[in-house]
Design goal:
CATH architecture of one domain: 2-Layer Sandwich
Shape: elongated
Largest sheet: 6 strands, mixed
Number of strands: 10
Strand content: 5-15%
CATH topology of one domain: Beta Polymerase, domain 2
Structural class: alpha+beta
Strand order of the largest sheet: 3-4-5-2-1-6
Helix content: 55-70%
CATH superfamily of one domain: Beta Polymerase, domain 2
Distance between the termini: 67 Å
Number of helices: 21
Radius of gyration: 28 Å
Length: about 425
């Protein structure tokens, strides 16, 4: 936050306010990662002076509305914008929720090494955001808040889940009556909100509001959670996982874990195909490699649960269906065994799933040993470089995984006997 001290000096003769999330997060004792600055006049002049002194680059977020971003050396975001309307009060009145409609004059901010501080009496709070923050309530600032930006439909559920706050009844009713407006929002903006929502633990109590809102149907054409039985099953699953602090147990990025959890039931219920889901997530601009990881986990979970009897007695099927998927066996166990806990009388199913995953783990362990390489194969078989070498290596790996080749000697004998 060193650069904020420089900025305070630059703006000592300007009217500037810290607004929105930084005020909220300070009051919640959360780390402040982003600073939103409302510059009442001479915005470009202030920004140009700042980037000249610091050497930071100016990022244009919205050219028409004059919204700019600077990323500091400690990876903090400082956003600069003009007010919406004629003054501070009009600007705060156009914001989404009361907890985000507070401001503090920049001159009243104390900048420390890694954060900002201010006195509560310096907060400008025309919409009682502090009171709602204290009471853990998400409340709209005005009744037109969705028409001004329909992305707020998704934001209300994100804040509710991530902060563990209740959505005020009139705000909820407004959101539910205008959910369809989310279709007017660009995919990349929706992706950012989904990322923020799914990057935090899914709270069974508050996330339920998102599931039952019908928003999922608009976003992914999935109606799974409109069914009360499916909804309760998923909440039961989340309750089991939440008690175990599941995000700390799985070595995947939080949003990947939660997206996998979220889509397990729709995939199991055949309400969305994995290929369709992949297309949708990539269309929302999620990273293709990450989407492939999600699809591999969902494919494996779906196959194991639906075909565990066949897989249990067929090692070749396990190899063909599961071996090459980008999954971790312990993570699969965590997803599957906790999901099975939501069912009744499934001891045999649980034991079968454990055996299948143990077999998969053993296959991968055996295949990880490299007994021979391509050059050695050419020497043993007197071959030249070509596609055949790759096919032979692939066949050796398969037989190793299945436990049919367990030493270099066995591999060489196999080559001599079969090629």
């Amino acid at each position: 936050m060193k650069s904020l001290s420089l900025l305070k000096n630059i703006t000592k003769d300007n009217e500037v306010y810290v607004v929105g999330g930084a005020i909220r997060d300070f009051l919640l004792n959360k780390e402040i990662k982003d600073i939103d600055l409302l510059v009442m006049s001479e915005l470009e002049n202030v920004l140009d002076k700042f980037i000249t002194i610091t050497g930071y680059k100016k990022i244009i977020l919205d050219k028409e509305r004059k919204i700019y971003r600077v990323v500091t050396e400690d990876n903090k975001f400082i956003d600069f914008t003009n007010p919406v309307g004629q003054d501070l009060l009009q600007d705060l009145g156009c914001r989404d929720f009361t907890i985000n409609s507070m401001a503090v004059c920049f001159k009243d901010i104390t900048v420390s090494q890694d954060s900002i501080e201010f006195k509560k009496e310096d907060i400008i709070d025309p919409y009682s955001g502090f009171k709602d923050l204290d009471n853990k309530i998400i409340r709209m600032v005005n009744k037109n808040f969705i028409q001004n930006d329909p992305l707020r439909i998704l934001r209300v559920f994100r804040f509710s889940n991530n902060l563990n706050f209740q959505i005020e009844e009139k705000t909820r009713a407004k959101v539910l009556s205008e959910t369809y407006l989310i279709m007017n929002i660009k995919k990349e903006r929706i992706k950012e909100e989904l990322y923020h929502l799914f990057s935090k633990p899914l709270n069974p109590h508050y996330f339920k509001g998102f599931l039952s809102s019908g928003l999922v149907n608009y976003l992914f054409n999935v109606k799974t959670y409109q069914n009360e039985n499916n909804l309760q099953l998923f909440i039961k699953y989340l309750n089991i996982l939440s008690k175990k602090k599941y995000l700390e147990k799985i070595e995947l990025e939080n949003y990947l874990i939660n997206l996998i959890l979220f889509f397990i039931l729709p995939v199991l219920k055949d309400e969305i195909s994995i290929e369709t889901l992949k297309y949708d997530l990539i269309d929302y601009t999620f990273n293709k490699k990450k989407v492939n990881i999600i699809s591999d986990y969902l494919f494996s979970i779906n196959n194991i649960l639906k075909d565990y009897k066949s897989l249990l007695n067929d090692d070749i099927l396990i190899y063909e269906e599961l071996f090459f998927k980008r999954t971790d066996v312990n993570t699969l166990k965590y997803f599957l065994l906790n999901l099975i806990k939501t069912e009744v009388g499934v001891v045999a199913k649980r034991e079968a799933v454990v055996q299948i995953l143990n077999k998969l783990e053993k296959m991968r362990e055996r295949a990880s040993c490299q007994y021979i390489n391509g050059n050695e194969i050419k020497e043993v078989l007197n071959l030249k470089e070509g596609r055949l070498i790759g096919k032979i290596l692939k066949n050796i790996k398969r037989k190793q995984a299945l436990g049919l080749l367990n030493s270099k000697k066995e591999v060489i004998n196999f080559l001599k006997d079969n090629y």
